[in-house]
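STRUCTURE:
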């Protein structure tokens, strides 16, 4: 009896992939500034458990490694950043872009 190929879910295309791809490319070339750390954390949350966008997920892991951070370190740093600074100044205070 042959195994069904329907047993594994098909990868999905994230609707914000092209915009996020540009951000990830910038992060790969950038330094861990407050803004870049916030962006990395935001994208880690967005793509956590997402069934697709493997290239972005892999590159987010690469950025963490380049900056010598664990995900726990990243989230601790960004919590501090958000408590003391307005990272998305000029982007509008309505920036709730987590999904």
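SEQUENCE:
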């Amino acid at each position: 009896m042959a195994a069904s190929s329907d047993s594994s879910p098909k990868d999905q295309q994230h609707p914000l992939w092209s915009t996020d791809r540009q951000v990830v490319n910038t992060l790969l070339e950038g330094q861990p500034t407050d803004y870049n750390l916030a962006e990395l954390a935001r994208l880690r949350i967005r793509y956590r458990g997402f069934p697709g966008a493997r290239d972005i997920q892999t590159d987010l892991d690469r950025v963490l490694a380049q900056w010598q951070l664990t995900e726990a370190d990243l989230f601790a740093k960004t919590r501090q950043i958000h408590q003391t600074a307005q990272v998305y100044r000029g982007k509008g205070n309505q920036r709730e872009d987590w999904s």
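REMARK: Residues 1-7 have pLDDT under 50 and may be disordered.
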